[in-house]
Each structure stands twice: as structure tokens, then as C-alpha cells.
Write a structure and sequence with these properties.
The protein contains 5 helices and 3 strands; from the N terminus they run E-H-H-E-E-H-H-H. The radius of gyration is 14 Å and the shape is globular. It has one domain. The chain starts with 13 loop residues before the first strand and ends in an 11-residue tail after the last helix. A 3-stranded antiparallel beta sheet has the order 1-3-2, with helices on one face. With 149 residues, it is mainly alpha-helical. Helix 1 crosses helix 2 and helix 2 crosses helix 3.
């Protein structure tokens, strides 16, 4: 699923320019109690990282984390992040488009591989920022940990 220019993570395609800000990808008009799709959760993760690190570093770190997590979650092989001119685009696995209940395993594995990379580069700063995002905590994508890897 290719993600389009304006942020609606429930549709295919996202164009990730460096001008995007955290929170703009949250779906509008979602019914109360409706679970966000994995695509929406990924967009929230992307924008939180890009807000602090920039899109180039975000793309690099997410590619590396996906490659490391793919043996445990093969659907991450379908995650593609590329640069087109000055903007980054990502293509998400088709299974991520629909609403999913519970903890999305592939996204949790991705973040598990991302965490040590972030700690190595930024100390606990960025990880703590991600831990404060309610959508990611609620779905178990990231949890608060006292000890850092």
C-alpha cells in the first residue's frame, strides 16, 4: 500500500515531507472506540520520529529496524521506504490498511529493533518521547521501560 501526500493513514500512500508535524496523521472522524489501523500507528510513529530526527534519519533508522525484525515478522519485508526528489515515501504491507484489534506484532517487533538504535544515537530522549504517545502505548507498540538496552 503506497501512502499519498496528504495525511490520512487509512488510505494508501504517504508522502513524508520535512514540514509535517506530530499529530497531523491522526485519523479524523474515527468512531469512538474504533481501533486505529497499523498504517495509522506507523504514521504516528513516523511523524514523531521525523519531528525530532528529520525524515532522512527516520527513514534510515526504520529501514534498519525493519530489516532486523523481518526474520520474526516477515510482513516487514513488504515495508519499503524510498526518497523521491526531496521527500520520503513509504509503502506499507497491505495487511496494515484495515483496522486491527490488539497489539500489532509486526509493528511491535519493528519498535523493539528501533529502540536500541534510538538509545545509541540519542540516549533515552527520543524513546521517552515515543513512550508518551497514547496511541502507541495503548496498543502495546511501545511500553515504558526503566532499563534501556
Amino acid at each position: 500500500m503506497k501512502v499519498a501526500a496528504k495525511p490520512n493513514p487509512e488510505i494508501a500512500g504517504h508522502n513524508m515531507s520535512s514540514r509535517r508535524v506530530l499529530g497531523s496523521a491522526r485519523p479524523n472522524g474515527a468512531a469512538a472506540g474504533t481501533e486505529l489501523s497499523i498504517a495509522a500507528l506507523f504514521t504516528i510513529l513516523w511523524e514523531a520520529l521525523a519531528d525530532v530526527l528529520g525524515t532522512a534519519a527516520t527513514a534510515t533508522l526504520l529501514r534498519r529496524a525493519a530489516r532486523r525484525a523481518a526474520p520474526r515478522s516477515p510482513e516487514l519485508n513488504e515495508l519499503a521506504i524510498s526518497r523521491e526528489k526531496l521527500e520520503y515515501r513509504y509503502t506499507l504491507p497491505p495487511a496494515w490498511a484495515g483496522g486491527a484489534e490488539g497489539t500489532p506484532l509486526a509493528l511491535r517487533e519493528l519498535v523493539a529493533e528501533l529502540r536500541p538504535l534510538l538509545v545509541e544515537l540519542t540516549g533515552p530522549v527520543v524513546v521517552r518521547r515515543l513512550e508518551r504517545i497514547p496511541e502507541l502505548r495503548k496498543r502495546g507498540v511501545i511500553s515504558s521501560q526503566d532499563e534501556e538496552p
